[in-house]
Specification:
The protein has 206 residues and is an alpha+beta fold. 22% of the residues lie in helices and 23% in strands.
Length: 206
């Protein structure tokens, strides 16, 4: 696998898109937050041309998901934004940018299609965040069908935890669709993603 340089959240996902084979990164449109003020009409028109389904307008702050800090859930993202409605897109982008408080030239916003028919969503960690021990951990929600319950902590289902997996064990274990390491509802459908960084995982019905 090609070595990746950690960049903004949006750019890192964009760089992963042509590389990973065990998961899918949905289409991305990203732009700098400062640029939006001067090129609002152009950016909104580009979004409307690129996407046909409902959208999620996502944060990509320079203070988010970097080598020093995570700030998971610390900035706004707006779900289920109609892709053809100018006012709705503008309001969502504005809300995300305002959540940054102080803008820098590195702050971005990015847009992706809104996932539907979600069976399971979650967050994968490459260390136990409570004590930094070398375990892969997946917090997941296989009940609500939502994609933001884990990062927001807003649901009774947001604290489900897949058993800790020791990193050295991952080097030799062979995962299959029937692996007992996966939550019951996704065993028959999901294949694992290599867990080398914190990332959002979702599974969508075909």
């Amino acid at each position: 696998m090609k070595n990746l340089k950690l960049s903004s959240k949006a750019k890192t996902l964009e760089d992963l898109k042509p590389i990973i084979t065990s998961a899918k990164v949905l289409a991305i449109f990203r732009f700098h937050a400062i640029e939006y003020k001067n090129n609002k009409v152009k950016i909104i028109n580009s979004i409307r041309l690129k996407f046909d389904s409902n959208l999620i307008i996502r944060s990509s702050s320079s203070n988010e998901d970097n080598l020093q800090t995570s700030h998971a859930g610390g900035f706004d993202s707006v779900l289920n934004v109609p892709s053809k409605e100018v006012k709705a897109i503008d309001a969502a982008v504005t809300q995300v940018i305002q959540s940054y408080e102080e803008l820098t030239s590195k702050d971005e916003v990015f847009v992706q299609p809104m996932l539907e028919n979600v069976l399971i969503s979650g967050v994968a960690f490459s260390s136990d965040i409570s004590n930094l021990t070398p375990y892969y951990i997946i917090n997941y929600d296989d009940i609500t069908g939502l994609t933001n319950t884990i990062t927001s902590g807003s649901s009774n289902y947001s604290n489900k935890n897949l058993s800790h997996i020791y990193r050295e064990y991952m080097k030799s274990v062979v995962f299959t669709r029937d692996s007992n390491l996966w939550p019951p509802r996704c065993k028959r459908d999901a294949l694992p993603t290599e867990l080398t960084a914190r990332l959002i995982i979702t599974h969508q019905n075909s």
